[in-house]
Amino acid sequence: MTWLPLLAVGPALAAVTSSPRAVLRIGLLAVALAAVLAARGRASGGEEAIVLSALVAVTLASSLASALRVRRERVLAAVRSVAEAAQHALLKPVPAVVGEFQAAVRYSAAEAEARIGGDLYALLSTPHGVRALVGDVRGKGLPAVGTAALVLGVFREAAYDEPDLLEVVGRIERSLSRNLGSDDFVTAVVVGHPRDGHMEVVNCGHAPPLLVHDGMVAPVEPVDPVPPLGLSGLTGETPSLQVLPFEDGDQLLLYTDGVTEARNHHREFYPLAEGMARHVSDEPSRTVAALHDELQAHVGGRLHDDAALLLLRKPVTADSRPAVEPEAPAASPAGTGAQRTGEALTSARADAAA
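-> C-alpha cells emitted (354 positions)
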C-alpha cells in the first residue's frame, strides 16, 4: 500500500506525449492494477478507496492536460503555417540567377517559431539593371514585420519606376516619414548595377557590404555616412551615391548586424570578413551555406538576433577570360615532315640541273 500511489506516474507521463484517450486507457490500467494489488495485500477498505480515488483523479487531470496540449499544438501548427506563408509573401525566394548575377540568400529569424522578423531583403531584375536591398528594422515582433513589409513594398515599386537609385531611396524615406513613429527607423543598404563594370551603393546607417575582388575581401565603407531611413527629417542629411568598380568574378556580400554582432560563449563577435575569405567560392549558394553553418557553430546553435546574408557574384564570361596563345610545337632533331620534304625537293632539283 505504501508504493501503490506511484502508479499515478503512468497517466501523468502519458499526458506529455499521448492523446487523451491513451491517457484514459493507461489510467484505467493503473486503477485496475492498484485494486488487484490492494486486494492481495489485504488492505483496509478505507486505504484502498483513498488510493483508487487518487489514481482516478490523476487520470482525469492528466487526460485534461493532454487535451489542452493537443489543442495548443494545433494552434501552434496553424501559426507556423501562417508565418511561413507570410515569409514567402514578404521575403520572396531568390533564384540562383538574377539578371547578370549569380545570387544566394540565407535568412534566420531569432525566434525560430516565428520564421520572420525585422530583417529584410529583396533582389530584383529591373529595366534599370539588377537592384538589391538589405535592411534591419528597429524593434521586433509584429510592428517590425509591418515596417519591413512597408519598406519592401515601396522598394519593389520604386526599383522598377525610378532610373536613379537615389530616387528609389528617396521614395522609401518619404513613405517611412509618413508612416513611422518618431523613434522608429530602418537601417538599409541599396545597391544597383546600371552598367557593366560598375556597382552603385547607397548606405543608410547600415553595416558596410563586403567586396570580394581578386580573392581579397574589403568592406565598402560609406564616404558620407548618413543616418538610417526614417531619421533624415531630424538631421537634414541626404544619402549619397557611391560607385564601385565591379568586374567579372567580383562578389558583393550584403548582411545585417545579426551576423556581425553574434557572440560566442567568450563574448567574441563573429569575424564575417575572415569567414568570407575562408569560404569564398565561385558558387554563391555554397559560400552562403558555409558562412551560415559557421555562424551557427560560433553562437552554439541559437541566434539572439535575426540574421540575413545576400551574396551577388558577377560570373566570368568567355569574352572576359584572357586569351591563351597556342604553344609552338617543338622541332624534332631530324626536323619536321615539311622540312624533310622541302630538303628532298631541293636536292632533286639540284641533281636535275647537274
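The first strand starts at residue 97 and ends at 98.
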